[in-house]
Amino acid sequence: MKSVKHGVIGYFMAVLLLLSPWAWSAENPRDMLQKAGDSLISRLIKEKAAYKKDPQILYDMVEENIEPYVDFDGFSKGVMGQFYRQATDSQRAQFSATFRKSLIRTYANGMAAYDNQKIVFKPYAPGDDPKKAQVDMDIMTTSNGAVPVSYQLVLNGKGEWKVKNVIINGMNLGLTFRNQFASSVESSRGNLDKAIVSFIPAAESAKKGP
Asked: Which domain range does residue 8 map to?
């Protein structure tokens, strides 16, 4: 199951990499993610030999492309949870930067595990809040059947959809990381500076479900 989580997380990251700026406002979130996913599958197959020989290619690819498409500040605020209110502006900025680097590493490693799984997007229905959206899909695997994935997105002031959280097979990454950070603060005896520096989100070690 660990390899499945890695592959799904990698696909989540991979979907973001080919999103062009015009797509965010021109299409609904489902169409946007599906088009990007279809294009990305071809790219993964084409460049597989290169990044298998040199993993740095993956890290560079992710680092160059992830930031415009993820609401890192909003994501990291949710992960800090109750400690966000206690943190200074400097600590919040440092945590966001640390969280960003950790996610880039996590998603790049997961991206390498993608192995031509079939992706099935479910019909999209806008929710009551026009500034929020959820896109659901299934990753079809040979060993574990359909693995459900839900992207949670927010519409920013520029009319751009950005991913703020993802739920994989019942595992809420935002909530999982929040619990991990709370544990980090506890083990640091309430020292936020120490907890921020030492925090590394670990989706692959998380238990299923919130």
From this structure: 2-204
